[in-house]
Amino acid sequence: MATFMSMRFTSCKLCGHPVRRGIVNVSKLSKRYKATKLKQADTLVWEPVIGLEIHAQIAANAKLFSGASSQYGGAVNTQVSFLDSALPGTLPVLNKRCVEAGVTTAIALGCTINKVSRFDRKHYFYADLPAGYQITQQNHALANNGEFKYFVYGKYETDCVEKSARILQLQLEQDSGKSLHDDIAGRSLIDLNRAGCALMEIVTAPDFHTGSDAKSFVRDIKMLLVTLGTCDGKMSEGSMRVDANISVHKPGQPLGVRSEVKNLNSLTSVKKAIDYEIERQISVLENGGEVINETRSFDVDTGETLPMRDKELKQDYRFMPEPNLPPLRLYYTTDKSPSGTQQRVYVDILEKEIPMLPRDKRNYLIEKYGLNSYRANFIVNALAVELFDDLVKGKNIKSFSDFLMHQFLNLISQRDLTVAESNVMSSDIDKLYEWYQHRELSLENIQKIVTGLIEKQGASAREIAETLDLWQINDEKYLTDLCKQIIEENPKHVAKYKRGKKRALDRLIGQAKQKSNGKADLSTVNDILIKMMKTGAE
Amino acid sequence: MFVYSTMALRFIVRSLLTKRMKYLSSINRYRSKLPDKPVWIEINLKDLPEIPELTVDMIKHIERLSLVDFNNQQGIERLHSAISYANRLATVNTDGIEPMYSVLEDSELMLHEDSITEGGCRSNILQNASIVDEDYFVAPPGNIPLKQNNKNFNTGESVS
Q: Structure pTM?
């Protein structure tokens, strides 16, 4: 039953006739309300279950089983050995650096290292896999049963939560070549430079429940791999790819049928693809359909997942042990076995060589400076711990960390740059902060200077500030004159503010910003405007 | 004369016998894993795992996966007998025995240093390709399934 509340008589805006208007309050007993609430509650009941497979290309000079170069961006088909192009009579020889990288990563993820692991062949036909099989480690992998803790950010800084995911398996495998699909001419162009490059496949347990969880996990594990030096983490160059296995079920019931979304190559696509796929599966199930176990790909432009046509039939990979390779054995220096003439990989030596991990750096920042976990994780992920350490001496920690994060680190992360690549010197940041504290520069102009430094528009912060004339104007007289001008030019907004709409004040301040080219001290402008409008009202 | 011939005969026979005994004893020093007499075990066909029904869909699926052409009814029967032959392995008792994955089990896996020793031989790599475009291999598009040839498996004729 609808009940009218707070009625008033006004005139219709179109025809001028008197009309009664009021706010309709839909009673909570109404059927429509109940039906909507039930539908919303139903969607809340479905629990998504997500597992990830991360393929990280190992940072090594050569490929996994051959001596060809694994560098990115080489001329087409110039980094291909006879083994990579599957010419008969060639045999694989394992690269020591790749084993070391795999073991180091496994130790950092807290996995149990298997002293003996084996290689298998995974057979499928595709133009970019010349041999018709990929050498991987399916049944006896390099390491199993690890765990990784990561931070999920929320709406506010204090909503930052630490979660943990289990690592089921870490294995070494070969990459396939790259195929460019030319749909117009109906053909594929194959470049084998990437064929045979070493990949670490990190398989997680299905411990994720939202796209945001998965994205945070990938972000933090990327930082771990970059810190260890085992992967360069450049997802845009294909150094790291993520496949997600997604299913939904109602709590208490068995797990639903899962579908796989392959080749997600950026953090935003990880989140979007998983969220889309969860919604798609929920809507399929709620309409009485069934989820098909299939492989899908993510279309970045439309934000949808689409089935991959050539993976329609269920693939049978016919796994078999790789006959050309004996088992891979790992050693400890304390082992009693006689030392051979062969090169060996010693697990305990690698363990000692592990550098300071992101989680240790985070804990260091939290303990030394009392930062909250969001800020600590942000600074660690931006590789700015040293910078922060150098510059924060003698400054207010909270205000400086705020400044560093919002005026600098945000800007460089938007451009996919690291601190080292940004061309901004730590002395510049120091100066900018000093000027900001002494009210000589507004935040907006600071961002302009930082952008200018990144784009090499000036040699130093001072130079850019002088050239573009960005110094803050604190002169009372100038500001008062400016405010008078603005109030005269914008009577409508002034009237709105006087009526009680606070937003109008923001409009006036925006005008001040524009007119003074961002140089006016906005907090003083704010005070002057309010004073003027109050006296004006009287 | 007669005595000499028998003596000679006995001599020859004895030398042959000693040779045979030496031979036999040398064999016994390296004990043979082969049994002395042939051993024949009867396998009861009912103990073996059942062979699933080879439907036309399954045959098509296998043909697509392995790119092996079964062609006609004879091919399918051959597949059936191959499966039943391989099924006899199920009678071997493997309890408590570690599987052997390759005869290279005990050898040391060689590791090579991480240096670039190969590559840079584009002309060699591309020389056997039938179609090359601007140094890329040209292949048929990967996204379209192969044309399904509807075969009559009884006669081996194909009706596309």
A: 0.77
